[in-house]
Specification:
By secondary structure, this protein is mostly helical. Helices cover about 70% and strands about 0% of the residues. A two-stranded antiparallel ribbon has the order 1-2. Helix 1 runs antiparallel to helix 2 (about 35-60) and helix 1 runs antiparallel to helix 7 (about 140-160). The radius of gyration is 19 Å and the shape is elongated. The protein starts with a helix and ends in a 13-residue tail after the last helix. The model has no long low-confidence stretch (mean pLDDT about 80).
Amino acid sequence: MRLSYRLVSGLLVLASIVGMSFALYLEHVKGLEPCPLCIFQRVGLMAMGLVALIAFLHNPVSNAVKRFYAFLAGIAILWSVGVAGRHVWLQHLPPDQVPSCGPGLNYLVDALPMKTVLQEVLSGSGECAAIDWTFLGQSLPVWSLVYFILLLLVCLWQLFRFYPVFKTAKKRV
């Protein structure tokens, strides 16, 4: 069975919606406040979902455009993989090496240039090292990393898989 490009793009959109829905459920129903790294992970997930939605709606015929969309979606989710990896690393630091808590993300965005905000957030803080939720003995950033890696593999498969070339018949004049 051959999975169509449009179907896989739709599944990536659905995966983005499911991931964001779960994040919002944990935030608004379970009361887990997202740390700055969690918020940055969401940005990559939403960007991948947006690119996949555009690819789904456009449903390009050109293999080059299909690969371009897959590349953009892959770059977006690669951002989330990197941030989640950093988050997991922070959670596994010895307690004496965990960075101290800094100001909140809202303050950073209001007071600092975006480049400095990115540097501050990606360096992590004490709140990012806290483990507030676990499932099967693993923290939320670990499960997020696994989920993002699976989505990255799908994006890479979309990028490198074989697409049949359809030749159009030329009209004779």
